[in-house]
Amino acid sequence: MNGSRKVGLNLLIMVALLAANPLLAEEPQGKIAVPELSAQADATKLVLEVYGKELNSAKTNAQKQALAAKLIATANENVGDPVGRFVLLKTALDVASQAMDVETAFTTINALDKTFAIDALELKEKMLTKAAGVKATPEQHKSLSDKSATLAEEAVLQGRYDLAKRMIDVALDTGRKANDPALVKKLADRKAAIGTQAKQFADAKQALEVLDKSPTDADANLLVGKYICFVEADYKRGLPYLAKGSDAALKELATVELKGATTAQERCSIGDMWWNTTDKQDVTGKKQAQIRAAYWYKQALPELSRLAKDKAEKRLQAIETSDAKPGVVWVKIINQNSELCLAVSAGSRNRGERVTQWDDVTTPEVPDQYWRFEPAGDGYVKIVNKNSGLCLGVFSDSRDRGAPIVQWDPDNKPDKLWKIEPVKNGYVKVVNKNSGFCLNVSRQSREKGADIIQWDDDGGTNCYWRVQDADKAKGSK
Mind listing the domains of the chain with CATH numbers? Predict the structure, then answer.
């Protein structure tokens, strides 16, 4: 068999396997189906005619990486030919996989996922699992461990716990090969937490089946409500279940919160109720009950009397230093273009306050540059500010380019839901569910105080961000 025929056979086999395996049963909204095998075969022949010689001559990893990048660039320019684009990207993925170039492989998978109905998580899992079995340096193993742990979290966000468990195992394995005991301990703890969460998910799923037949079943309502509130942190959906549940304290609390609060005293009272229920919950429930109490206390603080304000601030301080806090990961979100941090203007706790970029000067007293990601389902997260308890949203639910980013109540409206999508070199883009636009710095500014807006992903570094553990960021205390 000559070289050209060998490459052609490999590509046809690869296309057939990828068409048969990690694909979604239904096309997600806005995506198109994977092309038929017959159409792919024709496009593959054309790719081989144009690139067959380069595919045969790419022997070293560096040569394969360069060729994969060339194929991706061609695919991006191949407008109006989805079948050709698909085959070019699949060929690039095959070449990147041969070179064990995880970064390029992920870039290719993301490009495929943007247009076609593929299972991006499963493709990435296969790539990382394969790479984990290859001899590498401790630094390379550490990088693989980090990527595997990140993929595990993406799987958790989508409720795909079997995949999450497999990826956290890969993360642990490569973490051990990296000779990093602290990382291994952290991952082992996370593996246990994912196992617990998976059981809660299964119990909640079973409880939902009970509710289909018996909507008033108190125990089933409690299970579903606790999962949605304490695991998904979606109180708007979860509170109605708790209000019909069998836990008397949570039932009363949910009923009161659903009625709403219009005064500082009412907000503080709801915070008190969450505070009083923390010791009655398991570890996950305690952490979330404290977070919810903190949210209500922060909403009440500006208008509270002196004594009530002192009480609320004392409890907020206790929450920040409690045993539940290690479960909460606070991050800083740093712009690639400016190297400035995502922040709330003037450290405000007010609804509707604009979000800007600023020097990394956060203090423990005003942690307006600290954020956490809360799962919101389907791979989306809410991005919640530590200082205000409010979340990142688009002003007036706008879908317009250039609409300002503000902080607002953390409900599950699509303008407050974001998808974290890796790009390259450790950076990500943050995409809004409602508009499809990215978190961006206005006018590509590098100035302190520049507004954050939503805009197209135009490939500029002003729409790419680095997510960094707040405890490791410059200036953190």
Answer: 1-118 (no CATH), 331-469 (2.80.10.50)
